[in-house]
Amino acid sequence: MVNKATLSGRTTTPPEVKRRAHNKIDLKGRKFGRLTVIREIEQMFFPSGSKTQWECKCECGNNVNVLGSSLTTGNTKSCGCLQRELVAKRSTTHGMTGTKVYRTWQALITRCTNEKIPGFKNYGGRGIIVCERWMKFENFLDDLGLPPPGMSLDRINNEGNYCPDNCRWATRVEQAQNTRSNRNICFNGETLCLAAWARKLDMDQASMGERIDNWPIEKALTEPKQRCSNVKSM
Fold it and tell me: What residues contact 203, with CB distance under 8 A and at least 6 apart?
């Protein structure tokens, strides 16, 4: 016999009695997400009341024990395999992991951000960075596309950053003409490396380099050859 209290002319049932009188839902045989309920395991007790734990079979083959409330609210839908698959899918949506273009992207990120690798001093160590857009592989791929056969990544300005305006796929010959020691020089709409300008002006490369380092570009590339001696004084 349950005692009832009278409050303001109405009768109420104490909360603890309500919990004891609550009918438990039988979940056996029901399916929640990837989980099929096999059997009831035990009652677990919390400050808010008791809850039933159920043994479930996951579609991946694993068995897992789950609270009934987690099943009915949709908080638990698998043994954990679903979450792992979603994480893996998000990290490999491009499907390009292991390809040449993906390895190229990984390498440029590493050489500009990882101080522990030997090559860092020639890239991140001297201020070369990867633009924010290219920190995401899909953007890098959209901007440059796949590398044509025989080509690899080249920065047009070797003092510049890794970004769409300063990078291209280039042959070994093109890259050899674009090294830090073989600078590209643009004059009157024509861009040639230092060695090519020297050949064009019938001058040795050392003299041409001295001109470029000490004279304005226009003067360096138009001054007659016979006046190339004593460059620094001019």
Answer: 225, 228
Scanning the structure block, which residue is given the tokens 């890794």?
162
Task: List, in sequence order, every residue forming a beta bridge with 147; answer none if it has no partner.
Answer: none
Residue spans of beta strands (DSSP E) within 96-226 = 152-155, 167-170, 184-187, 190-193
Look up the pTM and report it. Answer: 0.43
b/e per residue, 43-76, with b = 16+ CB within 10 A?
A: eeeeeeeeebbbbbbbeeeeeeebbbebbeeeeb
Please report, for residues 111, 129, 206, the alpha-carbon distance to residue 180 in angstroms, rounded to integers and kept in the order given: 17, 17, 15
CA gap 132, 168 in Å, rounded? 17
pLDDT by position in tens, the chain (length 234): 444 444 444 444 344 433 433 457 899 999 999 999 999 988 877 777 788 899 999 999 999 999 998 899 988 899 888 887 776 666 556 778 889 999 999 999 999 999 999 889 889 998 999 999 999 999 999 999 999 999 999 998 888 899 999 999 998 877 776 665 556 778 888 888 777 888 888 888 778 877 877 888 888 888 877 644 444 444
Residue type, 171: T
> SS3 for 40?
strand
How far apart CA 182 and CA 178 sit, in angstroms, is: 6
Question: Structural domain boundaries of the chain?
Answer: 5-87, 95-180, 181-234
| Distance from C-alpha of 67 to C-alpha of 25, rounded to nearest angstrom | 12
